[in-house]
Amino acid sequence: MHVAAAGAVIALGTAVGVPAAYADDEPTQPWAEIQAPRQIDLPSAADGQEAVAPSVSYSFADGGAEFPLPKNAKLVIDASGLEGIATIKAKNEQCTASGAVVTCLDNGNLHGPWEPFTLTADADAKPGASGTISYEVTADGATGDKDSSKVVVGSPRLVVGKLPDRSGLKTGDTVALPLAVRNTGNLTTERVDIRLRSVPGVEFTTKPKNCRFAYEWDESASVYCAIDTPLEPGQSAKLSTPLTAKITKAALAPWIDYEAEAVPASSDEDPNGTRGTGSPIGLTTASGGDFETGGKSSLSLLTDNHADFRAVGGTIEPTADGTTGGLRFGLTNAGPAAAYRKDGKPLLYADITLPKGVTGLSNHIDEEPDQDTTGECLTYVSPTETKKFEPGHSRYLCPEASTELPGEGQMYGLGVKIAKDADKNATGTVKLVPGPAGFSTNDPDSGNDTAKITFKGASGGSSTGGESTGGSDHNGSGSGSGSHDGGASGSGGDSGSGGSGDGATSGGSHDSGSTGGSMALTGAGGITLMAGGAAAALALGGAAVVVTRRRRAAARV
Length: 557
Description:
0% of the residues lie in helices and 38% in strands. The protein contains no helices and 39 strands. The strands form 8 sheets. Strands 25, 26, 27, 29, 30, 31, 32, 33, 35, 36, 37, 38 and 39 form a 13-stranded mixed β-sheet that branches. It has a 7-stranded mixed β-sheet with strand order 12-24-21-15-18-17-22, with no helix packed on it. A 6-stranded mixed β-sheet has the order 2-10-9-4-7-6, with no helix packed on it. It comes from Streptomyces cuspidosporus.
């Protein structure tokens, strides 16, 4: 059985298709399945004559019938058809070589060794020379399997043209993507596969019928095209018709990753996505151009759009003895744009100043942090320095993830220590400040970047502006749903005393917010140096800080 990426193991006891030999009759024993590439390309002597270790393996399946396990499995790899073309050597300790044949014995795992052999092109083998290597698996108590791979000396090798970054784009603008490729290898291409992937804010609009188009749950888009136009060594070409992309209302600073790969004509096409209906695209000969050194690159698209991030305040709920408590706070993205950072750094930070007499007690990272945020708050040291979370401080910085969709947000919980003489009418703040340099949300409203932290039941504790609940729905309304994704129960956040998977703290909390402050995400005064952010959990008390995120549940198909 040929596979594009060998190494997958089909476990006994799983429901998989039966082999063709059993189309009419029920199987009576497990059967072997070989995973091997259709074609193996070997660097020629001119290319450096490097050894290649193909990903060839095998496994056994029983269709869920739970037959007795096979025994004494053996994989035989016969490279006698490669005489004068390539030399085989055993690579894995389970395998031994005898001339052009490598034999691998089972070690009890019932699947073949990873990369059992290497092939090296013979010094006199010319580019284009080819032969066949064959595989056979046998075992006691199982039906065997046979397969083979074509081995070719030399290969086409593609590099992609550099598409220039674009700026000043507006919603509804269309961007042409005249992708170009060059064959720097020593063989003519049989097929060129092109892939483009974008973050939210980009919609591919030209839809040739030899391309497929797909969308992920967050509206990230992708394109896959299979082009049969041959490209000779040294030849450059561009798409016969450029693909195009439209800028949507979710675009802020999106980017498109793109790549081109030369594959054998017999390779399986990617079946994911919906096939286009327009005229097919091909490659047309081109000259000149600015090319990358490899087959991958990226295009940045900057827009005049914005993402309005809003602080979500919170209420400290003391425990029965009044010496500790729990607090939940956070932020939401009211849109309209999706905020995605290409470098993976935090979009921004929630700068937390606790009320006088209150200090942080403990910090906990969710066992399964959502997407790419750890949830670990940092201890504020100075405007240019932070360190790992430490109890006993009144100011912390909590990182937002590097991505946030419109209508979604992030909630944190903090376990706190309360001094006996703490003024229950004192307030603290949740203030949103910029993340590391290199990205801006173009936040248009600084008035909702700060919200209050109050004590439960304190006079003046209610808020008249900003966010007043734990999280927000897709319209940024702030109503909670009590789900694992960070929504608060009812309209006031978690009020219980027990911890839960969604970030409840030991004292429970209610979220409240207010307007006030003037720290815009795009303004000056943010923390300019962020350190720490370790991934290990730090549990120092009964309460904890936990991060949860809202996420869109449905995927576009």
